[in-house]
Each structure stands twice: as C-alpha cells, then as structure tokens.
Amino acid sequence: MRKVHFRDTGMIKQIEEKVVNRLRQVTSAIKQDGANQVSIITSSAEREAAVELAKAAVVRPNMIGTALKEISGDPEVADALFELLQTQRILDNKAKLTLFLNAENEKRLADLLAAQDGPPALPGK
Q1: What is the pLDDT of residues 104-119, one digit of tens each?
Q2: Mean pLDDT of the chain
Q3: Residue 96, number of CB atoms within 10 A of its CB
Q4: Residue 38 lies in a domain
C-alpha cells in the first residue's frame, strides 16, 4: 500500500462529512444503548418494589390481627389502647368538641387542662 496524499479539497470535504456522520451514528447508538439499559434497570427495580409491597400488604392484616388478638387477651390493656386510639382520632379531627361533664370525668378534664398549660412552676421561680 502506498501513502496517498489527498489534494482535492472536495474529496477531503466528502470524507470529513462521512466520518462526522459515522461518529454521530455511533454516538447516537451508544446513547440509545445506555438509555435502554437504564430503562431495563428501572423497570426491574419497579417490578421488585411492587412485589415486595404486595407481600407486605398480604402480611400486614395478619400481623395486625395477631397483635389485636394478643391485646384483647388483657381487657385492661385493650381498654387503654382503644381509649388512646379514640382520643388520637378526636385530636386529629379539627371539628369542635363538646364535653358533657359529670362527677366522674370532671377531675379528668381538670387534669387535661392543667397538662395543656404545662408543668406547674416551682415556687420562687
């Protein structure tokens, strides 16, 4: 083979254009391949997450049922839990609350109001 020196500027321009076009094609193919790989990884991760969430959704009711069964075994604990849950729902609700006082719950209301104001101040402070 001999070294060929191109002196024809038109031919040089054509060769440069072909090389640039081929580089564009290769670059585009590389980008597309990378995007395809990312898509495969993403869809695989999403599928795995969906499977794990489905497993958790199946296990959750059984776990809650077991815990509630255990709690209901001790009536004192069950009463305290459900009173706490009921109080939490009332506090989360932004509706107005009307309390009817009787001798039994009057002291409880006074304790709640005192707790709302914070701990009592120490004398001399």
Answers
A1: 777 777 777 776 655 5
A2: 83
A3: 5
A4: yes
Same structural domain, 95 and 63: no
> With the C-alpha atoms ordered 99, 102, 106, 107, is the resulting torsion angle positive or negative?
negative
* Mean per-residue pLDDT, 30-47: 94
Q: Would you call 67 exposed, middle or buried from its count of C-beta atoms within 10 A (0-12, 13-18, 19+)?
A: exposed
Two structure tokens written together for 76: 């004192």
User: Which residue type is seen at 23?
Assistant: L
Cα-to-chain-centroid distance, residue 122: 45
- Residue 83's domain comprises 75-118
Q: Express each pLDDT in 68-99 by its tens digit.
A: 888 889 989 888 888 888 888 877 887 776 76
What is the DSSP track for 94-117? -S-------HHHHHHHHHHHHHHH
101 is a domain residue: yes
